[in-house]
Fold these 2 entries.
Entry 1:
Amino acid sequence: MEKGNLSINSENIFPIIKKWLYSDTDIFLRELVSNACDAIAKLKKLGTMGQFKIDENDKLKVVVRLDEKAKTIQVIDNGIGMTADEIKKFITEIAFSGATDFITKYQDQFENGSDIIGHFGLGFYSAFMVADKVQIDSKSYIADAESAKWVCDGGIEYEMDTSDRLDRGTTITLYVSDDNKEFLNGWKLKEILAKYCAFMPVEIYFEDASKKDDEQEDKPVNDTNPLWLKKPSECTDEEYKEFYHKVFTDFNDPLFWIHLNMDYPFRLKGILYFPKLKHELESIEGQVKLYNNQVFIADNLKEVIPEFLLLLKGTIDCPDLPLNVSRSFLQNDGYVTKMSKYITKKVADKLNSMFKKSRDEYEKYWEDISPFIKYGAMREHDFYEKIKDSLLFKTTEGNYVTLKEYTDKNKDKAENKVFYVSDIQQQAQYIKMFKDQGMDAVVLDTRLDVPYVSFLEAYSGGVRFERIDSAVSEMLKSDNEAEIDAESLENLFKEALKKDDLKLKVENLKSDEVSAMIELSEQSRRMQEMSAMYGMDNRTFPSDETLVLNANNNVVKLLLDMKDERKDEAEMICRQVYDLAVMSHKPLSQEEMTEFISRSNKIMELLAEK
């Protein structure tokens, strides 16, 4: 058996780093600034351990300095610094992490993880994504340590010498390549800092070499103590709103928010906002920003954040995220699943709490948050199980009820059945008929409600949903049956409408105001809706519509008297009755509407003549 050691061709390492290590070129600034923050974090840790005394007047900070003329970008810190030996150890040995080495060395001093950002020892090399040459000037915190300089042009060779840096800390100088001149722009760099470094734990300043000292910005570009790090009890409503406006540039106030704060079995903090929607599912463009130790990682990572929660806006910071070397994607890890379940539970708990303790307020928000909740229930079964008793339905009377409240109220008239309307105006006739019988229907009038209804039927314990115009004539039948020649009426309508296959029945309805109505079984209507959603031809499914004539209506009675002596007028009224019934069921086509209006004028002319 032969054994050996794996080898790496060092000449190929930089092309690999440049092309494959990071998904976005602008990440180089995040990595270098993160390393600078780490250098300061290490110095602070040594200070707390009594191994170094930090002068109270020594302002610890990171400076990003642009010199467009010299074609350089510098990242400067006054942190722990490095000796020449440490530069050789941490920089020239690729993938040897100084952060990991520091944590290992002082591991007994760290509680529940650390606030050191770096782990893999590769972030520094992202500099070569934009630079032809990179120079390090560093002076260690150790008093008698000599300053050191390291220079590399992206090949396997480097040069080392003493540096002229006098103060503790490190300066990374990037000599930007011609291919990346876009980064020699102040607005561009500040945009990158705002994206990745807005909440890093050390103050970061931006300087432009083309400006005088008194012209430089004297404010840090970041907020070192973001709102999510505070205890919920310490935050005011105004602070939550201000943070929302600042981070998401949304001028509308959020409806409400959830403050996440967990320390075990993993550390996770954050704020999730429920935005006010302008239209259905607008918040599919929501934005949940993921951070690791206050360093921005990515927007909307589905591995950590359940997909339906991506409809919200928010920030989540988890120092324990199991990131890969580029920090751009997550590895499969048990922590990730636990985080996702925790976030789902916290959202469900918040909604349930509002429902139980502040139902009036919960109902006020329902129209805005219902798309999110409906989508979440269908996408995440655990979420549905937690939230199912807090699902609301708006009735045609404008009240809000739960599924149980609705079925309990109507169990004597329609056991375990929920009637709903999909268009309040179009189905107004049916709504009135229901109201006259002391019944109500719920409003389910969005595209999302089409699959939502089927979902609820599958998981709500046998409850069936029927649209208000689906085979309801049996419920609305009168006990007093009027005698009428149903066969003659059927023949008259078939001849007038020229529809030999017309399904028609005559019923004695309780209301005499309605001449006719169209019934379509719930199953047939859903098949038609499904075919429309998928762009299929509705003719694929045979029509199952039935015209129900009301024997108690005076117009219907009159038709039998007219059919012999005034047949043309009777047939015209038949077509009018049919179109009126259809209009309460679905819109007329352009041609049908034109004919309906013309026919209406003729009928009025006939009435005027009499």
Entry 2:
Amino acid sequence: MLKSVFRLSALSLLIASSSAIAQSPVNPTTNPITGQIATQSSAANAEFQKFKTQNRGEILLETGTRLSFEVTRRETRGELEIVTARLLDPYAVTDSSYHNLIVTLSPKTGSLSAFAETTEGHFDFNADGDATRLWRQSKPPVLDEIYHPKTTRTATAAKTSSITAAPLVVGEQDASGRYVIDVFVGFSTLAANSSYVRNNLEATAQTYIESVNTALKNSKVDNVYLRLVGTGVSNNNPGVVTSVLSDVNTWFSADIERTAPDLVGMVQMPTNAEGSAGGWAGVGGYTHVIGAPWPSAYRHEVGHNAGGVHCKGASDSGYNYGFSVRQGRGTIQCGNDLAYYSSPLIKDEEGNVLGTSQSNDMARVWRERAAEMSAKRIHKIPFPDTPATSITLQAEDYTGYKDTTAGNTGGAYRQDAVDIQTTTDTGGGHNVGWIASGEWLAYKVNVPSAGRYQVSYRVASLNTQGLIQFEKQGGNPVYGQIQVPVTGDWQKWTTLSHEVDLQAGEQYVALAIKTGNFNLNWIKLEKAATNLGTFRLQNVWQTSQFINIESGAPVASNLPADALSSHWVLESVSGSAVVRLVNRWKPEQLLTITNGTLAAASASKTDTNSHWELESAGSGEYRLKNRAQPTQYIHLEYGRLQVGAAQPGWWSARWKFVDVN
């Protein structure tokens, strides 16, 4: 799925989104499987305090070398703090961005994850070590020898196609205009419990992500960045083998559905399985796997996902290769010694140019593929720097409850008195079941702004109607009530909605069950739809033609400007650059796709067949792309209004919005 994020001045359209991690925060030092609390050494506690409070200091490598650090940037992401520093390495010729130190702090638990690179090699943080062994040397297998089969390196045709951007890809950009590549990182239970991760999933994954972002910044790639949208744990640990690249989609299918990542990573503990390596990734693909002991492998494998290969051989062609100055001094795809992707525009601290324009320019590959990589899926986690308007609460992630029966009847997910079971609803996961009158469930939310919100519930009921009262925890105020219909089966799901007024800020809301006997999968809070204005949709190719429903079905024809059948109210879809097109003459009629055909019909607010992404075509012109079927554009080719694939140059697929407010 593709998506364009833009600012539409003619419609005064402001995209609303925010930075978030989709997964409910997990205590980084708590084992997500066993619930056991991990402890760390007093030396590790002191190291946390050092990076939390000091912008200058020292680290002691296990080799005995002391290196001074100087913090260059601090950034808060959710409950984490990302600290980027440069190391003042006495063995380096000059100070440079080659000597990176990335530290991810978890203030909630006083723990940290970190990655450092020096002239002595790569080091990660070991919370179990004493003061002399906190910074442990990481020595992954030699990348060019065993990470990827030689057939991958010499498959010129595959490499060429992997770095060719799709012509219609607009990509997903944040408010700054940079492309955002969303990443989900999964861990095996063995990896999560290891000394390399210590169940500090989010901080560890964020350190991996920052190693890529730092390398992109060093390489002067400023149009794209990676964003962590979720982490998870799976019991599967076959090792660092290629089968993981496909299996990870099954292991984390529910998480992938919920977080909509563009890249999916997996962290395994090494095994003796045949084909084991330090890491694997598909060239131009979207999955990758690394071994937990080798955090530096992450940026290398993601480089393969971007379309890069290893060191250039004599018979290889293309510009998607890493570059090596000499043994022990290679860029990320060719040795992984330096925190750079190859580029003829950058030099190391010795003055060596780290690439060529003909063969070794991974920075160019990143710039060219940024839009395509960001458009693997339509993001569900709002982008940074703008307020969120959509909050999804999984029913089973309550913060408080009252249940009228002892024990978890469903036996899944949590072991308290709430009854939880595995669901067969879209996206998988769990639902709360056996819901009875007099029970309640409470949830913590942070409402971004005061106003009218649409509250939706995903429910199922075999043969009994229920009644939900939505209220502030404690029962005052009561926001509203909604009836749960009979759906015909405990796993036959439907979505129902009502609108309520909420105040801004962090608060606890509750569902008081007035009449029970139904199942609940999730609750969603969305800013109520806002009308962006009323417009006539004028075709750019045939300027006398306006979309209308004068005769019932949608057509394009020449009608007077005051014909209400050609007036369309643009109704924003919360949290994204997507609109619904509602006819002013017949407000129950929206432009939608029905059985593969453009139609004017009624549609629920959640029906993505009636959601249209407005892709900018320049000069105040836009393409109308369907959200459910992203290859389908509204166009007037062959003199007939229709939906279908459209070429980038087709003026028949471009529309102007003529304001009739």
